[in-house]
Design brief:
The protein is of the alpha/beta class and 566 residues long. The strands form seven sheets. Strands 12-25-26-27-23-24-13 form a seven-stranded mixed sheet, with helices on one face. Strands 21-18-19-20-14-17-22 form a seven-stranded mixed sheet, with no helix packed on it. The two termini are 53 Å apart.
Length: 566
């Protein structure tokens, strides 16, 4: 396969997976075709670990002129739902990828059934009436051979009759299974007569009640790849030990014909593990069902829809995955790397606005009553073609409480009595005093401004050590701001022996309702990328209405977590 020189330079450092794909194409395997697939089970929402697989499956096909199809592995109707199907499609499109075709494992149920029937007739599969627990006990260990089932050598006619009756719904779930008859002494435990069909009496989201016997993953997956013409089955490392069985069933499907030059090739890479996060679908489902979070798209969740709602861009997710790469070794990736990728991307695309999320009133005592000025603010200084907007300035302002200290140390350069600061896009002010309320809290701060320090004025270049953001009390909008942090308080909750519920960070969500933002923000829509100046990156939440603006914090302007953890 010819690849343009500029493409070679662009992807000079490529993963071992791409190296394998590239070599197969150059060698002309599979007729020079490249076809991958992303095969999620529709039993939950995709998380960032799936995003890594998506970027590989779709990305390698896109890069080397192939096609990637989307296939739903819908072989277990007890856990699957069309809600998840729709959500998975939305997440893939949001990440910026397009599938060639959409398939379902259920599209192949008849072909898989026919294959299973053939194996029974050839004496290569049998119906076992033992319990799942007994079957597991009989499998032995990698060092000791397993014990053959008493049903292993039953006549094929009997097994076929039972298999057909399994599918007619004559038997209860768990009462019998169909097993492949392979080798109970094989050192690879997956070859010790694996279960390939079980009974599930639940309506399937596509096929209804047509089937009561459903194929297992190891039996359906490789054959589905083969039926579709997949050339490269790219998956995570836990499936490496399944690869010989994957190849075995494909060989049996084609009755032992030589397939070395025209068959799916399975390649495995490491999963994405993230600090302060769990990726287990079971645990994520528990978080949602037990209302420990506010749904699958809670901005604290590692789901793709959760990151989207929090304000991450698809480009930042893809950038992070590029940063960590693909290897054959499991690793625990630092959440701070993901945040750094978000900052790098959002800095380029976010609109700069002013917001005060912990307000205290500042009165400029020498500013004329009733006077209002319009100050010009640039939307994004990183963009040479950026627009500007105006923000009103007046006598009474809101500033952040943290920007004032009554007894300030020498290295505190913000506002304190006798000190000067610049108000961004406006004037230099000097603090002259303050007033406390009945609880001893600072209620109002008093300052005087220098009218000659506005941009363009004679003293506009006078140096001060701090610049503060602000809002005019009479020209801003009230808002709710949700501040999010890492969902778990320990670095690796998956490895902790305690119940994961005990490890949830009690400060992972803080809601502030007495916040103020620029009127300009009434023009924005949910998921627009914003930078609250000096505070961090934010986005407008779905819960927002014109009368009640709600913002989610995406990430701070810098990583403060290390400092907090010490």
């Amino acid at each position: 396969m010819n690849i343009e020189k500029n493409q070679e330079e662009k992807y000079e450092s490529i993963s071992f997976v791409e190296e394998a794909v590239k070599k197969d194409l150059e060698d002309g395997k599979n007729g020079g075709r490249l076809q991958t697939r992303f095969p999620p089970e529709p039993n939950g929402y995709l998380h960032i670990g799936h995003a890594k697989a998506i970027c590989m499956d779709f990305g390698v096909a896109e890069k080397y002129g192939g096609v990637c199809n989307l296939r739903f592995d819908d072989t277990n109707p007890s856990k699957e739902d069309t809600e998840y199907v729709d959500a998975i499609k939305e997440d893939i499109e949001w990440l910026g990828f397009k599938w060639g075709n959409i398939y379902y494992a259920s599209d192949y149920f008849q072909k898989l059934w026919d294959f299973a029937v053939r194996l029974i007739k050839e004496g290569k599969a049998y119906v076992d009436e033992q319990s799942k627990e007994t079957i597991n006990e009989q499998k032995g260990t990698p060092q000791t051979p397993g014990i053959e089932s008493p049903y292993r050598n039953r006549p094929w006619e009997e097994s076929l009759d039972l298999f057909e009756r399994m599918n007619k719904g004559e038997f209860e779930e768990g009462s019998m299974v169909l097993r492949a008859k392979i080798d109970m002494a094989n050192p690879n435990m997956h070859f010790r007569d694996p279960i390939i069909y079980r009974i599930i009496k639940i309506k399937h989201h596509k096929t209804g009640y047509k089937w009561n016997a459903y194929p297992m993953y190891d039996f359906a997956h490789g054959q589905s790849d083969f039926f579709e013409g997949v050339t490269h089955s790219i998956c995570t490392l836990e499936f490496e030990v399944h690869r010989p069985l994957y190849d075995y069933f494909i060989n049996e499907l084609k009755e032992g014909k030589d397939l070395n030059d025209n068959r799916p090739r399975q390649i495995e890479f490491n999963r994405l593990n993230l600090t302060y996060t769990v990726m287990s679908k079971r645990k994520l489902l528990a978080l949602v069902q037990e209302k420990l979070v506010d749904g699958w798209d809670d901005p604290r969740m590692p789901t793709i829809c959760g990151f989207r709602r929090r304000g991450f861009s698809p480009e930042s997710i893809r950038r992070f995955i590029d940063m960590i790469g693909y290897t054959k070794y499991e690793a625990l990736n630092d959440y701070a790397m993901l945040e750094a990728a978000a900052r790098e991307d959002l800095n380029k695309r976010s609109t700069r606005v002013s917001a005060v999320i912990n307000p205290v009133k500042l009165v400029i005592t020498n500013y004329p009553d009733g006077k209002v000025e319009s100050m010009e603010a640039i939307d994004n200084p990183e963009d040479p073609e950026s627009k500007t907007h105006t923000i009103e300035f007046s006598k009474n302002l809101w500033i952040e409480k943290d920007d004032f200290m009554e007894d300030a140390p020498k290295k505190f350069y913000r506002l304190s009595v006798g000190r000067e600061v610049r108000l961004k896009n406006a004037y230099i002010i000097k603090c002259t005093g303050f007033k406390k309320d009945e609880n001893g809290e600072v209620e109002e701060i008093y300052c005087e401004y220098d009218p000659m320090t506005k941009s363009g004025m004679p003293d506009s270049n006078r140096k001060v050590k701090a610049t503060l953001h602000w809002l005019s009390c009479d020209h801003c909008l009230p808002a709710e701001v949700r501040l999010y942090d890492r969902l778990f308080s320990v670095e690796n909750p998956s490895a902790d022996e305690r119940d994961f519920r005990e490890l949830i960070n009690p400060n992972s969500k803080e809601v502030r309702t007495n916040c103020y933002v620029e009127k300009y923000l009434s023009q924005f829509k949910p998921l627009d990328y914003l930078q609250f100046q000096r505070l961090g990156y934010f986005t407008l939440d779905y819960d927002s209405t014109p009368d009640h603006l709600v913002f989610n914090k995406t990430v701070g302007l810098r990583d403060n977590w290390v400092k907090q953890s010490k």
